[in-house]
Amino acid sequence: MTTLNRPAAPEGHICGIDTAMEVIGGRWKVLILWALHEQPCRRFGELRRLLPGVSEKVLASHLREMEADGVVRRVSYDEVPPRVEYSLTEDGTRLNDALEPLAAWGRERSTR
């Protein structure tokens, strides 16, 4: 699934990386995936605190896009005050696993 602000090219995706970048494109999405990998279930405020510099509007937008793309699950509880929790779907976990070699490359590069 793609979100409306990221339409696919009329002829479709060129390669698998094109498809993956559509899902993780954005300054904060990979960091959201990391935060949800570190702790399986997080609330919006927790994510906001873990990502200093992200605005509420951008975080909410990224979470909506990631939910539409099937990598984040949003669970809303019928409580007062309202409680909403975010977690990774199976696809989100697989995406995090796929990003691990990239993270290892970055860690290695930063120690040079």
From TrEMBL:
The keyword Transcription applies. Keywords: DNA-binding, Transcription, Transcription regulation. Residues 15-112 form the HTH hxlR-type domain. Transmembrane segments: none annotated. The keyword Ribonucleoprotein does not apply. CDD domains: HTH_ARSR (cd00090). InterPro entries: ArsR-like_HTH (IPR011991), HTH_HxlR (IPR002577), WH-like_DNA-bd_sf (IPR036388), WH_DNA-bd_sf (IPR036390). This is Helix-turn-helix domain-containing protein. It comes from Streptomyces gottesmaniae. The lineage of its organism: Bacteria, Bacillati, Actinomycetota, Actinomycetes, Kitasatosporales.
